[in-house]
# Entry
Amino acid sequence: MTDVFTGLVREIGTLTAVVARGGVTVLTLRAPVCAPDLVAGDSLAVDGICLTVTSGSARGRAADRGPLVTVEAVAETRRSTTLDDWRPGRRLHLEPALRAGDRLGGHLVLGHVDGVGRVRRLERAGDAARLTVQPPPGVARWLLSKGSVAIDGVSLTLDADPGETGFIVSLIPQTLGTTRLGELVPGDGVNLEADVLAKGAVARGTAADPAGASPLTYERILARGFRGRRGGQR
# Structure
């Protein structure tokens, strides 16, 4: 069964070490909030990438190493995400996978990055901000006005008219205070994951309408039987 996340960041961890071992990249993270609850085999979203916790102490608990937790990534993950650019000292969004009974406060995030977008601008507006991102080819078709997108693992609501030339999300003070999105600068790469419900609707719509004549809308998603609320972390 695939682990899922909410896109609500639990903490901002720090990358302390990156080691290559036989085609696998081993990452050690300082995560004082998350580490005590993680054991080997658990899933942890790191800047939106679902990675597996691989080691703690000899007894198997990450908590036994204090605030440190270790995860691993393969070559495909490095190729399709921003991970290959990570260096020790980088701050990273962390979120453990949902457990039975946990509240879903953002939107369903799988931790399967669809592609790397590029920041075009970050505009401050009082205590809030507007972030404009250029998506990679192919990802824009899954972006729905007022729908959800995960940026570096943060659940956000798309503003009107997202497209191939870019999309905009609004960042409220709460988001700016609990994530590092406010530190982004033009040219930075960000991991993007479109809403899985939107991707499902596009797939079903393509089968029913191969020519793609009808644009994707929230109403079309509902008409195809999907149910959910609009929004995310703003």
